[in-house]
Design goal:
Length: 199
Amino acid sequence: MAGEEPISFDLDGTTVRALPGETILQAALRTGTEIPHLCYKDGYRADGNCRACVVEIKGERTLAASCCRTPSSGMNVATKNERARHAQRLVVELLKSDVQQGSDYSPASELDHWASFLGVDKARFRPRQQPLRDLSNPAIAVNLDACIQCTRCVRACREEQVNDVIGFAYRGAESSIVFDLDDPMGASTCVSCGECVQA
């Protein structure tokens, strides 16, 4: 990307210059515009799994995940108009419905931060059946009842540590984070490096 010039585009009525290779989300965060995001983690490949960061691009029929969309010159992006905000709120509300209410988890989670930011108090949707705790590994307890299936742990295991132990299996309400062939973590090939916990 050597020699590429920054790209100017419109972000909520303000002209912003995106650096070469920078996504809409990265340019927004760098220039002080907050866009909700959950599956994105700086330094990891962007997947656009959670869809909390969707924005409206003028002239496009569908909303775009800002974490994996690069701007083009003259693009007009709305991050907080009614269409984008409605979609962002709905995604966060759906994800919040799957997190056990009244649990002993910290209310300072990223999901709680964005729910507060968007004014999502409680979810109207029925939660999915939560997986059981996996305490088979002496170093890491696996509690997927607060998992939003962002796959940051999968990318951490596969792409950062190159262990390829953690995966994503099944479909729909049955979809789940798994270790190897859906083995208990302690019986899997996990080396307890902790990269998934950090992600």
